[in-house]
Amino acid sequence: MSVQIDHLLHESRRFPPSPEFAAASVATESLYEQAAEDRLGFWANQARELLHWHKPFTRTLDWTNPPFAKWFDDGELNVAYNCLDRHVLAGDGDRIALHWEGEPGDSRSISYAQLTSEVKRAANVLIGLGVQAGDRVAIYLPMIPEAVVAMLAVARIGAVHSVIFGGFSAESLRSRIDDAEAVVVITADGGYRKGRVTPLKPAVDAALASGDSSVRTVLVVERTGGDVEWNERDKWWHEELAAVSDEHEAQAFPAENPLFILYTSGTTGKPKGILHTSGGYLTQAAFTHKQVFDLKPEKDVYWCTADVGWITGHTYVVYGPLANGATQVLYEGTPDTPHPGRWWEIIEKYKVSILYTAPTAIRTFMKIGRQEPQKFDLTSLRLLGSVGEPINPEAWMWYREVIGNHVTPVVDTWWQTETGAIMVSALPGLTVVKPGAAQVAIPGISIDVLGEDGHHVGHGNGGLLVVTEPWPSMLRGIWGDPDRFIETYWEKWPDAPNGPLYFAGDGARLDREGDIWLLGRVDDVMNVSGHRLSTAEIESSLVAHPAVAEAAVVGAHDETTGQAVVAFVIIKFSQTDAVSHADISAVLRAHVTLQIGAIARPREIFIVSELPKTRSGKIMRRLLRDVAEGREIGDTTTLADTSIMQIITDGMR
Ligand code: WTA
User: Fold this and answer.
1) Ligand 1 pocket: which of 4, 308, 389 to mutate (most atoms within 8 A of CB)
2) Are 269 and 540 in contact (CB under 8 A)?
3) Which of 143, 215, 384, 596 has an alpha carbon within 20 to 30 A of 575's alpha carbon?
4) Distance from the alpha carbon of residue 549 to the mean position of ligand 1, in angstroms
């Protein structure tokens, strides 16, 4: 892995902020100074300045029982009040919160006052359904304003949301509903993607069809007007909202009240329910959104293209921007519908000034060519952000030059579902940016790169990225599984002298100036189009198919999506004659789509007769990755039977 990126470290291009950008910068050098001087005092100040506390806190951090942190824990606040009511009370009720653009071309602009009143109604509906503080509500919606309303309504009453990305299958939905024991599901009849209606309600029906579930009520937003089957537990969202008052006074909850669970793939077959709480999460969400995006809420139009089903959508579509009173664009559909310039058209239409997206999207646009963005006026853009996967310098340069008109700063931001908010990033008014580097820890965050031995690697060397001090928006645990929380993240160096270190699962290098370059995952987690997928989860889905005896999955390099899912499958002897390889590949790809969702569908499936294993029986994924990427096969000395690689490569020709 380090071989592939060595050349990047000789990247010599440097882009300081323009004098005008620097002069108007929200961030100042003093942030780094204050944080270095008194890290906890710095975060306490941010929490007080950025948020409204119904009851002020006196304790900043309780780290007496690591890795279980408590931030601001004797304080009380209401997350939705911070995102809504206080802006209205401050006189900004007429400011647009959401410029929503539906894929078919319908649109709605919703002010802070309107959004507040919608959320109050939705909160009253949830209360009427018996949802109480601490209860879990599953949200399975397309990118429509109701998704934001639903999340904030749940937060407003102190309940906990679990948003499940609309691309996940009924089975994935069910396992997440069960794990969190959700009492209500909020969904829609469907949504628009790629010019078609994608049904959602049928997936909820399928998910709840078998056995008893914890779900009492399914609230259904009418988005497409398509026919839906109706069950006793179903209620129309619009009817319920119309029947309740839009008065609701936000109650304060303790800072450590759970805010949401978000499931993400780990190294085992079972997704982890990452738990985030209120005060610390909202502090770092608001802080990073303001400083990294240089936000001027009175004039900026911000657009983060992430779906609310992912952490980026939670922190940088819902909580960060709304806590800061920003005006933002929310778009339902795909970038190329109905034409390949759709995103650029939206930027022109709303005069978007800040764009935050993923390298996969940028690389896709590069392939289409600069003639598409050049048809539109993109001069409103003044800042570009990237997230989700390493951005190669070529894509970074294209982003800056073609989308950013050669002058717009690009910030690459590293973070995770678990970290809750941005951890490593340039601050655009201060940092001299380098194409491809995530650069430095944000103020108040302590990052290091360590060798396997737990020692700092030093400038010019690679190792493992760690967070060395607790941070406000850190995950508070894995839902229902404290042991897994400790084992997964905190036990790599159990004897670290200054307390437990958080191991992120990413490799990184420090360049000669000490800037951080991300190298990708070092575990069995893949990153496909910026989405995290577990090799083990897809393998267990494949072996659940009656035709499959054994399966191994690897993430192979892909020019556009970063990585792609490639599976190696051994078919049961009894099935080998029955169907052709092409047929069985198609069947298995459809099977994975049904079990997990289209995002996990393998790009390729190779039918093989053996899998390379170590003498202890562990599949050697490294070798399979070599095969999948068309490389010469690496070191096979630990392989139990070296002839196997020959069999596999021969079989694939
Ligand atoms: C990867 C998304 C390189 C990384 C916010 C991390 C990145 C995983 C970057 C988290 C970046 C995210 N450069 N790699 N700027 N941002 N990653 O939980 O491997 O969906 O561990 O959170 O994405 O993915 P997640």
Assistant:
1) 389
2) yes
3) 596
4) 33
